[in-house]
Amino acid sequence: MKLPFVIFLSVLILSSCASEESEKVKSIYDDVEISLNDGAKWKVSPEMKPYMLKGFKLMHEFEKSKDKDYIQLAASLDGLKNKFVSSCNMKGDSHEQLHAWLMPYIGLIDDLKEATKQEDQEHIFQQLLSSEEAFNEYFK
């Protein structure tokens, strides 16, 4: 009699683990069409890249800090994004691929500037962190 209960309990535990995996937060970049350059990462111009790297560093420092001023973070990221965009000197396919990555990133910064609920701010922040993963996957 105990064997059916053990089997039932095992199936229940395994199915709950599978559902946790499917509930993983979906990245905004999961639906963005970015491709590699014949299997290689696209090169970002040296004039532009420091602003993006500084933004990523800022996000990691924010993640570790106890002070969670999302509005200030959004303002800082927005300033760096403006410098990144104004320094753009890229052309062709690399520019188009970078643009495909950049538009959702800009939208996330704008969303963070407007968000008032902490849970919304945290969700947007997690999406911003995933933007770095996407950037590093396709660009160097």
How would you portray this structure in words?
The chain has 140 residues and is mainly α. It has a single domain (30-138), classed as Four Helix Bundle (Hemerythrin (Met), subunit A), CATH 1.20.120. 70% of the residues lie in helices and 0% in strands. The chain starts with a helix and ends with a helix. Residues 3-25 have low confidence and may be disordered.
Q: Summed up, what is this model?
A:
The protein has 140 residues and is mainly α.
SSE class: mainly alpha
Major sheet: none
How many distinct helices? 5
CATH topology: Four Helix Bundle (Hemerythrin (Met), subunit A)
Tell me how many strands there are: 0
Total number of distinct structural domains: 1
What percent of residues adopt helix (DSSP H or I)? over 70%
How are helices and strands ordered from N to C? HHHHH
CATH class: Mainly Alpha
Give me the oligomer status.
Answer: single chain
Portion of residues in beta strands equals: under 5%
CATH architecture term: Up-down Bundle
What is the residue-averaged pLDDT? 84
Q: What best-fitting shape do the alpha-carbon axes yield?
A: globular
Rg is 20 Å
Low-pLDDT segments: 3-25
How far apart are the first and last residues' alpha carbons, in Å?
60 Å
